[in-house]
UniProtKB/TrEMBL annotation:
Signal peptide: none
Known role: Catalyzes the aldol cleavage of 4-hydroxy-4-methyl-2-oxoglutarate (HMG) into 2 molecules of pyruvate. Also contains a secondary oxaloacetate (OAA) decarboxylase activity due to the common pyruvate enolate transition state formed following C-C bond cleavage in the retro-aldol and decarboxylation reactions.
Name of the protein in question: 4-hydroxy-4-methyl-2-oxoglutarate aldolase
EC number per UniProt: 4.1.1.112, 4.1.3.17
Keyword Lyase included in the entry's annotation: yes
Pfam family, one: RraA-like
Gene: rraA
NCBIfam families documented for this protein: NOT-MenG (TIGR01935), PRK09372.1 (NF006875)
Amino acid sequence: MTEAYATADLIDAHGDALQSCETQFQSYGGRATFHGPIATIKCHEDNALVKEQLNQPGEGWVLVVDGGGSLRTALMGDMIARAAAENGWAGVVVFGAVRDTAELALLDLGVKALGSNPRKSSKTGAGRLDVPVAFGNTVFSPEAWLYSDQDGILVAEERVEP
């Protein structure tokens, strides 16, 4: 999506109707500001479902991956992120680690994660799709809206405008 929304302006306009994620993420993608409806995955040190989802048409959606906060293995690297960008995903938020960060910075994709680790994850397909996930005192429900910029991440039950 090309239009940018400043999270501070959204909070000023909508206040407590928005959830503000308290977890401090690092930005790794080439797109600093992104927003869209949410798709979710809950998985632990296994990125098979992440790869499967991001190889599907994204249509401006944001994938939120609850990796349990693990920094032991990366849940996304350059090849999966490149597929996401090519398939039209607006962004990916990983409550865990990513890798290939130099390459991620070159992609037209929003990427936020807790950190990086070059170690690959397992690929058994363990995890759950399209379930509410929670971290940072925020619930990320499928089909809610996520707004992200340099100031943080907001979640709204439906699309909002400043």
